[in-house]
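Researcher: We're teaching a course module on how sequence relates to structure. For the next exercise, students receive a sequence and then see the predicted structure as C-alpha cells, so they can try to spot secondary structure elements on their own. Here is the exercise chain.
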Amino acid sequence: MPNFIFSTGIGLAIRLGDVINEGALWMPRAITKWMSNEKRTLLQDGFVHTLVTIIVLFCASGTA
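Model: And here is the predicted structure for the students to work with:
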C-alpha cells in the first residue's frame, strides 16, 4: 500500500496527468497529417473518448 502512495505522489509532483493529456491532444493532429483524408475526420472529443476506451480495454484485458 505505501508503494501506491509513493507512486501517486511522484506522478502528481511531475504532473504526469498533464503530460498524458498533452500527448492525447497532439495525437489527432499527427495522425491527420499522416493520413490526409478529409472524409475521416474525428472531432477532438470523439478521439479522446476512443483513445481512453482503447487504453482501458488494453490495460484491463491482462488483469481480467
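Model: If you want an answer key for the exercise: DSSP finds three helices and no strands in the chain. The helical segments are 2-13, 16-34, 44-61.
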